[in-house]
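Students often ask why we bother encoding 3D structure as a string. The short answer is that it lets us treat folding as translation between two languages. Here is a chain of 178 residues written in the first language.
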Amino acid sequence: MAKWQRLSPQAEKAIYDSHENDLKDQGYRRFLSRVFEPVCARLSGESTGLDFGCGPGPLLAKMFSEIGHTMAVYDLYYANDTSVFERTYDFITCTEVIEHLAQPGEVLAQLMTLLKPGAPLAMMTKLVIDQTRFASWHYKNDQTHISFFSRETFEYIAEQLNADIEFIGNDVIILIKR
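And here it is in the second language, the structure alphabet:
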């Protein structure tokens, strides 16, 4: 999508500000557990993680902190501390973020450089099933969603980034740094 076709940063943030991601919402916690649980299963002991694209209420980071992991957070609009890109991590999460990125390949490559070998980059996004379904897919109608991925796209990305890949359910993708 050309830059002129995308929302302005102010318009994009206004949409994000309207989201209701309450830290006390048990439904939101259950939603995030689809990434939280498989990442936890891959960690041993206290680990250091980065929640990339944490939004205004970094619940996923809080969930990891609650069980003893040290968390850093980054979000273009809500936690824009670029010093997080100067460290390495035992895991990185990126939930409901990649579809908002204008340059997802560059961002994923950058995130992979921040991971220790064997560490997971866990993402959550809806996947394109096929062209016919895409035409009537509600997910593409969100004006902030500008990048879309299929299983095949993620398999290609994993190959390019020298990573192993695992799909969990319909919308969780884990890249493991080799």
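Translate back mentally: The helical segments are 9-17, 26-42, 59-66, 104-113, 131-135, 151-160. Keep this in mind for the problem set.
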